[in-house]
Design brief:
- The longest helix is centred in the middle third of the chain and has 23 residues.
- This protein is of the alpha/beta class.
- The protein folds into 2 domains: 305 residues, Rossmann fold; 122 residues, no CATH class.
- Helix content is 36%, strand content 19%.
- β2 and β3 form a beta hairpin.
- The protein is built from 15 helices and 12 strands.
- The strands form 2 sheets. Strands 1-2-3-4-6-5-7-8-11-12 form a 10-stranded mixed beta sheet, with helices on both faces.
Length: 460
């Protein structure tokens, strides 16, 4: 039944964004100096890969509309302050129009590099990247005529050999902002200018929803950036905004539906967060879960989250004494004690842990708290949102618990414009994602751009 739902949703997404492919060509840009590094701290374009994507006009099917896309590299910094080159995708209408808005697209959780934005192909139309690129066409709606920028995130695209700092929110937000500023330079060098009165929106689902809210925060807290980008707000779908609350909810429910996410979090944070320096993911995961090879699967960057889930399920069938998957309306899941060590479960449920285990558990809690969207960030005080946050969340999301939506509302207050999504059919994290991109994201973007989201609306 679940596979049938996904098939129907995929077909729906394809119908919503029917397309035909264009021709590929590569254009090389001569940088300002031999190694492509400019004098400023933003980044330089080294190479552009052009691909014309044809979208069918949804109102007049007698002709198609085109999005011109490029990939580019830009300079940013890693968690330790070292300069690195990251990659991003940029697209704008091929028609002779000045973009009316800038859409910063934040992609979902991926574990295979082929799904990174810069690897986007015309056959990926039903993906989140494809759906966000739909706004980079000429049209009469407020959400059309967009300049769309989608970074790969560190660990994918041009930095695939590096560990992905998964859910390291401040770090990723800073790298996304660097991508945006470099991308805007690229656009002006290649295509001209934005239209008068242009505005910026940041949007994403799942990991992308959390990144979108983190970017929203950074834009508001970095002096002058809101004005520079003509910022008007964010669209955040089913994001893990509060990692401490998420861990606690998973443990209290005793259900982890996408268990690969836990080592993905731990691997990224152990290698990028100073609080966890000296610790390894295996310090928090059960030996039997580590024995599945899940950490190697993540490191390969060739397996999708679905592939990893299927391998874990196959392992459980072959090793029933070590692991057992259970099933309910949310799908297959592992109990918390099959993934996390006993001391983790004890700590996050308020029970006593040994003096020898307490330091590592406190370090993990501190790292998770630091990566909560409204948690302590380097160089910034408390965040008080100044622009609307258009939040969407499924009440039955099994991967990113609904508590994240509730926590975001409690913190963001009058700037939180919430949509509680409830459906007996589109009831999982994945299926709700299709609804978000297929039906809700565009309407939320229209509201933002037209200034209709300035007051709190909760649980519509």
């Amino acid at each position: 039944m679940k596979k049938f739902q996904i098939t129907i949703l995929t077909l729906l997404a394809v119908l919503l964004a029917a397309c035909s492919s264009g021709d590929d060509e590569t254009q090389t840009i001569v940088p300002d100096d031999p190694d492509g590094v400019r004098d400023d701290d933003i980044g330089a374009v080294v190479k552009l890969s052009q691909d014309s994507i044809v979208w069918v006009d949804s109102t007049r099917t007698s002709y198609g509309k085109q999005t011109q896309t490029f990939t580019y590299s830009y300079r940013s910094h890693d968690a330790f302050g070292d300069t690195i080159r990251l990659t991003a995708l940029i697209g704008w209408p091929k028609a002779d129009v000045d973009p009316m808005n800038l859409l910063i697209g934040c992609h979902i959780t991926i574990t295979d590099d082929v799904k990174a934005p810069t690897n986007f192909g015309t056959n990926d139309i039903a993906s989140d990247v494809g759906m966000l690129l739909m706004h980079a066409v000429s049209g009469d709606s407020h959400s059309s005529n967009a300049l769309v920028i989608m970074p790969d995130y560190e660990g994918y695209g041009g930095t695939v050999k590096r560990t992905h700092p998964y859910l390291c929110q401040e770090l990723t937000a800073r790298q996304v902002v660097d991508a945006v500023r470099a991308g805007m330079k690229l656009f002006k060098e290649q295509n001209g200018q934005m239209a008068d009165g242009w505005k910026t929106v940041v949007a994403g689902y799942s990991q992308g929803g959390a990144v979108a809210m983190a970017v929203h925060r950074l834009i508001e807290q970095q002096e002058g950036l809101s004005d520079e980008l003509h910022f008007c707000g964010s669209i955040c779908g089913d994001g893990p905004y509060d990692l401490v609350a998420t861990f606690q909810q998973n443990i209290n429910d005793d259900k982890i539906y996408l268990p690969a996410v836990v080592p993905l979090i731990l691997k990224g944070m152990c290698e990028n967060m100073p609080q966890l320096k000296g610790y390894e993911p295996s310090d928090f995961l059960t030996p039997s879960f580590v024995d599945t090879g899940v950490l190697d699967m993540i490191s390969q960057k060739t397996l999708s989250t679905k592939d990893i889930q299927e391998r874990l399920e196959a392992y459980a069938k072959d090793h029933p004494e070590a692991m057992k998957f259970y099933f309910d309306d949310g799908g297959n899941y592992l109990k918390a004690n099959m993934v996390l060590r006993p001391e983790c479960i004890a700590y996050f449920t308020g029970e006593n842990v040994s003096e020898s285990d307490r330091p590592k558990m406190e370090a993990l809690a501190q790292a998770l708290k630091a990566n909560t969207i409204w948690g302590p960030w380097t160089g910034f005080g408390n965040w008080q949102p100044q622009h609307p946050i258009m939040a969407f969340h499924s009440v039955t999301d099994e991967v990113v618990p609904f508590v994240n939506y509730q926590q975001a509302y409690d913190y963001c207050q009058q700037y939180f414009n919430g949509r509680r999504f409830s459906s007996s059919f589109f009831n999982t994290h994945t299926s709700a994602g299709y609804m978000f991109f297929g039906f809700h994201c565009t309407s939320l973007m229209e509201d933002l751009l037209q200034g209709k989201a300035s007051t709190t609306k909760i649980d519509q």
